[in-house]
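A quick aside before the break. I want you to see a complete sequence-to-structure record at least once, exactly as it would be stored in a machine-readable document. Don't worry about memorizing anything.
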Amino acid sequence: MFHLINLYFWSLKFFGLAILLFLSNLCLSQTKLNDLFPNIDFLKSKKNQIEKLNFKIDSLNEVHLKEREFNTKTIQITKTNIDKLEAEIATTKQSLVLCQVNLDSLNEKIQILSNTDYKKRHNIEGKHTPIPQKTWIDLPVFSENWSSTNLFPYVYSENNKIPNLLDINLFEKDTGFCIPYKGYVSSGFGMRRGRMHKGLDIRLNRHDTIRACMSGIVRFADYNNGGFGKLIIIRHLNGLETYYAHLHKMVVKPNDIVKAGDFIGTGGNTGAKRTGPHLHFECRWKDYPLDPKLFIDYDNFTLKSDNLIISPEVLRTKPFR
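That is the input. The structure line, written in tokens, reads:
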């Protein structure tokens, strides 16, 4: 009996010692794990943060992908609309060009139809018995140094010497007189910016009507690259020539017979792009320019005299432009 109790007692001691040993090992192992990974809680926290950031990145990528798809569709729609607008603009330009052509044609017809009425209202008629138009072409004035391509055909001719005194009766053989255009003279005959201005610059609006100053035959009607632009030159029965420059449109051609007040073209600024629309009007005797105000009163738009005195003082300017 005593031996059994003693055995039981030692068994309890052994069991208790085993429990203590187990607990001691457990504590020791926990201490070593903490020594090896002292920041394990910090790492867990960072891992959670990384997972959250990855989730946000995935969400942003999804949003960006949808926005990119939307922008791509918007760009395609915009390009399609631009192509449609360009096509509509091209069609509109063609329509405008056609309208301008029709307008010019209509304006020309209106001006031609209004010539007769204009002459009646302004009393444009001859002051002398006119020579029949069919005989004009046979007059010496229309065969002497006649050229439809050369602006100054008298320059190298022997028959353009300046007379000491020549009295020209402007309308002895003519049918009348007309102001080419009733406008403000912005620049007169004479020196301008160091060079000779050989005519009058008369302000007007583009497409305004230009009329023949006196009766005669058109000698030149073409574009001139020397600064005149679209230019009409009319030689008159009295031997003078008048120049109408910077026109927008010409409705006469060389060898056409015109009377005073006839519609010959419309105002513009061809050949003078740096200035606004205006008529450059010149008067010349055998290529020598003279001041049109010698016989035209451009303040009252009337004729000063039926006669023009030609002399070296009047023709002091060289023929060349």
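Two observations worth writing down. The CA atoms of residues 172 and 219 lie 21 Å apart. The first strand starts at residue 166 and ends at 169. We'll return to this after the break.
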